[in-house]
Amino acid sequence: MDLLPFSLLLVAFACLPFSDAGSIGVNYGRVADNLPSATKVVELLKSQGIDKIKIYDTDPAVLKALAGSGIKVTVAIPDAFLFAAARSQSFANVWVQRNVADYHPGTQIEAIAAGNEVFVEANSTTRYLIQAMKNLHTALVKFNLHNQVKVSSPIALSALQSSFPSSAGTFRPEFVEPVFKPMLEFLRQTGSYLMVNIYPFFAYESNADVIPLDYALFRENPGVVDSGNGLRYFSLFDAQIDAVFAAMSALKYDDVALVVTETGWPSKGDSTETGASLDNAAAYNGNLVRRVLSGGGTPLRRKADLTVYLFGLFNEDKKNGPTSERNFGLFYPNEEKVYDIPFTIEGLRGHHDTRSPTTGGGGQRTVTSPVSGGVSKSSSGNTWCVAHGDAGKERLQAALDFACGEGGADCQPIQPGDPCYDPNTLEAHASYAFNSYYQKKGRAGGSCYFGGAAYIVSEPPKYGKCEFPTGY
């Protein structure tokens, strides 16, 4: 099947009738001391045509304000309550009665999120997750709400062992048997869906030297071919979703649906937070809304229309962490838009992505080699790119996944049974992949950086009997 150029795809999307398309929701976080009342928030949502929200608790003021609004809401039972919900069916029953049944159907609660990114924290919460979900569902059955309200739990992309290329997506092995298989079976049996939080911004921020900004922002780009299945991707967002779909497929749960419960881009960040800007946030979220409401699934699941919740409704001034954490909002606390994007089909018809004049029209930034990091190509006959052993497992793994996937490095030699598989260490495999990418790019400036996880050497790397190429 021939693939249309990305520019023609955009034209095609613009002409679609938008029937049976995806849907857009918004996360309503409240880690702030300057937000409008819940009643005013509901008025704001209705004025913008936003009819789906997700909250991180079951605040009575919010649930009461939503009554009669027609806005569908996903509520959450916090991580701290999962142990009690798993241990006691009566606790789950009372929680569902007080936080769901007492408001339904006036307030259209459609899902319960059990915890949020439970696997991110190195604690014992994970072991209680599945039983808590089962008990919450049993409570919904008790109140005859199980057909209207679904139970799931949002996972972060870090729950995947591998995400690049998308076709190689797999869940972290330590969670497969105790969590993912029983969770996916529960979702299948109850007609629910997997909740996933996906942030291309963080992947771009960490690998801005190798991930094109246009690819991260849904702008026109030549696309990236998945070396595993030959599919072409025009956005990092779709590639990340398909990595999750591939992980689900590997466990034979292709029939379970997926909802993106968080995604967004910050309008402001610290000087070290590459890509955090007003223009990029407007481009990402605006183009994402168009992509979702235009309908259609991903390259791997073409018929799977997406439901996506943007993060978040407001800038939240009490959030900890870097500047970006307080600047993911679509609105300021005074209810003014941080940037102008539509949320509905009607609004999309007259909306176009604009580029910042400072990007030179291409949305790209010039990348130079790090000051330290070995000798340059011009000062030595042969140079190689190797991994920083102290870069950390997560950074090395993310960079390795990219190099072997979208980066197009030749990673066959580090597969089991091939000459460079041994030594079977992350540093050795990453070094081979980094060097392959570096050599294929003609040892160009910036091609041996990988977010600070790599550096250049002038002596041939030595990892067992593996020989590193010097050119392609």
TrEMBL record:
Annotated stretches, region: Disordered: 350-376
Keywords of this entry: Cell membrane, Disulfide bond, Glycoprotein, Glycosidase, GPI-anchor, Hydrolase, Lipoprotein, Membrane, Plant defense, Signal
Domain X8: 383-468
One MF term in the entry's GO annotations: glucan endo-1,3-beta-D-glucosidase activity
Membrane topology: Lipid-anchor; GPI-anchor
GO CC annotation, single: plasmodesma
Catalytic reaction list: Hydrolysis of (1->3)-beta-D-glucosidic linkages in (1->3)-beta-D-glucans
Designated name of the protein: glucan endo-1,3-beta-D-glucosidase
Taxonomy of the source species: Eukaryota, Viridiplantae, Streptophyta, Embryophyta, Tracheophyta
